Amino acid sequence: MKIFVDTADLTEIRRATEAGLIDGVTTNPSLLSAVAGDDDPKELLREIAETVNGPVSAEVVAVESGAMLVQGRRLAAIHDHIVVKVPMTEDGLRACRCLRAEGIRVNVTLCFSAPQALLAAKAGATYMSPFVGRLDDIGESGMEIVSQVRQVYDRYGIETEVLAASLRHPRHVIEAMMLGADVATVPPKVLFQLLRHPLTDTGLENFLKDWRKLGRAL
Ligand code: E4P
For ligand 1, is residue 133 a contact (CB within 6 Å)? Predict the structure, then answer.
């Protein structure tokens, strides 16, 4: 399973990349808006794409398919790593079909049901992003969708990748792994949480303490 980091923060992306922790990046308009400030968001996306050796999702901010197409082409032209994100709407799927016909990779975002996931796949989506945490937030089971979609995609030999999104804690990542999601995208906080275990910390501390008793260098 691939791990993407869900942020537009270059410092976090550089840290994760240098540690070899990530296979790609997802952004969305809220994440870009939070960090871009006075900078051109397209320039920020270019820097992110140059930093990461993998796909970088960048989302259109139009609601009509023609305008999505124009923006999608503009985003794809920034860098080969860019994957255009379109929302799971009728217009979004129209734009998805056209962009795919032009060889541009597309991530259909804001998916909340298995039928939506099937329609995204039929439109040729490269990735389909079910938002797990947001379903949990309204008292539904986000992971249930991941499970259903995995079964449907496997049953019909669909190649669209299941990109489990809106993951809020390491337990979500474990569940996504167990259910066979192709990708889990996580905020930096969760990414670095995945590295850690208290028994690793105490184990290391004890090994180093015992070694110091020996009084030798390696
Ligand atoms: C994924 O592509 C989205 O940007 C993201 O996972 C949304 O997460 P949130 O529901 O925590 O905002």
Answer: yes
